[in-house]
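Input chain follows. Return structure tokens only.
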Amino acid sequence: MKIVIVLAMHGMPPNDFPQKETLDYFMLHSRLENMPGPPPPNMQKQYEELDTKMRKWPRTKENDQYYLTSNEIAATLSNQTSFSVVVGFNEFCSPSLDEAFEEALQLNPDKIIVVTPMMTQGGEHSEKDIPEAIERAKKKNPNIKFSYVWPFDISKIAAFLAEQIRDYS
């Protein structure tokens, strides 16, 4: 069975993205999220243009260490599992989760395993956004098996943290 892993990461705005556009992005995001009913098309278009510009912004160690570390985690995870790993971001970075699923599907897997380092329950991305992206991919690809490795066992999270603490105690 051919398995591909999709590593679902949060994402961060690059620190050299124009400040005014960053503020506009967050203002529009908030307004659209809290608006009753459908948004005005011009507002939605402006938000989508800023979102695309931010996601496509060139990433470097200086402007987005999170992006680079996410890809380092993917490479290490691939080495440790021997599976191909594709990174996808909930927001701010490319590829989006939908794009990551498309990339994973190009590898002709029998199964896609989705995992995120978002460890605790109660977060919108891990509880809502990631499952919704998985469902969209499933609908387009009913012959592929999808597994979401989440939520994590709390005792395993605590054991992981305890191991990290041992290095400092």
